[in-house]
Specification:
Rieske Iron-sulfur Protein; 26% strand; seven-stranded antiparallel sheet; Rieske domain-containing protein; globular
Length: 162
């Protein structure tokens, strides 16, 4: 009898704990590799809060940026931004609610968040979390896909990858 009760308790905990998880992987895993040397970082990089820039290889965004053959910009493109401390951060531009490469979040510098123009969900980006603030994303706990930015201000070169 106690064994069955124990099983029911475990099953109950598993069911309700699984509903409370944050989803960081709603956007398909797609290669990301953007290499920006020191000279190009001065033009295409982010230098202070709230600088931000979109990188979308298929559309040649930003204009004039020379992508290499090995460059790739994720599922919907890459949002490169400078956080509150001036450090570069990167996220996929695709809204995890819509989960389509052509539905991209847009940065609202006045409100200090990113917003999906289709579903209206908003995301915290400048603290580096990509956490949902409102809308369907918050309800479903869909976070933006985050990418890694390697490099340093002393070398002046950076690589964005996953």
């Amino acid at each position: 009898m106690k064994t069955n009760l124990f099983r029911y308790i475990i099953l109950f905990c598993l069911i309700f704990s699984s509903c409370d998880k944050n989803d960081y992987n709603r956007i398909p895993t797609t290669p990301v590799h953007i290499s920006i040397d020191a000279a190009r970082w001065n033009i295409y990089g982010v230098h202070a809060f709230p600088d931000h820039r979109n990188f979308i290889k298929s559309q040649q965004v930003p204009t004039g940026f020379q992508y290499s053959v090995s460059s790739s910009t994720g599922f919907g493109g890459v949002l490169l931004l400078s956080n509150y401390e001036g450090q570069p951060l990167a996220f996929d531009l695709s809204c995890p609610v819509e989960s389509r490469a052509n539905v991209r979040i847009e940065v609202d510098v006045d409100k200090l968040y990113a917003k999906c123009p289709v579903c209206g969900s908003t995301y915290e980006i400048f603290n580096g979390s990509g956490s949902p603030l409102s809308g369907e994303a918050r309800k479903r706990k869909y976070f933006l896909r985050k990418y890694v930015v390697y490099g340093s201000p002393t070398s002046g070169s950076y690589v964005i990858s996953n």
